[in-house]
Amino acid sequence: MSxxxxxxxxxxxxxVKRWARPLPLLPKTRxxxxxxxEHNPQWKPILQLYEQLCEACxxxxxxxxxxxxxxxxxxxxxxxxxxxVILVYFDPKKNRFSLYYRQRxxxxxxxxxxxxxxxxxxxxxxxxxxxxxxxxxKKSV
Length: 141
What we know:
Layout: H1 30-39, H2 44-57, E1 62-66, E2 70-74, E3 83-91, E4 96-103, E5 106-115, H3 119-131
Antiparallel strand pairs: 1-2, 2-3, 3-4, 4-5
Helix pairs in contact: 1-2
């Protein structure tokens, strides 16, 4: 799509699975996240993380809510399922976040579990290393 994020060539005969529609800019999916957490209050931490992301770098990231209350993040709108996306999931039973980086060339996918307190710092590093998006550290109150 751009010089910085070109669409990779797929192998001949290989089906490239893409999202049903191009991913919107992150702030445009606010209503979906709010509706989900309104009906599932135990998922409030993922809404708080989403709000922090929108505030810090909403115009640089594309993303959407995915089935199961997760969040997909990408550096450009038209990406495949395994083409450099970060998936963020929250498990309300364990009160832990899971971060997954899916890239076709990196097998197995890189993943990490972290607590609510550590998720911002870990996601900040994922965004910097994988997408080149620099996000400031959380201010301590």
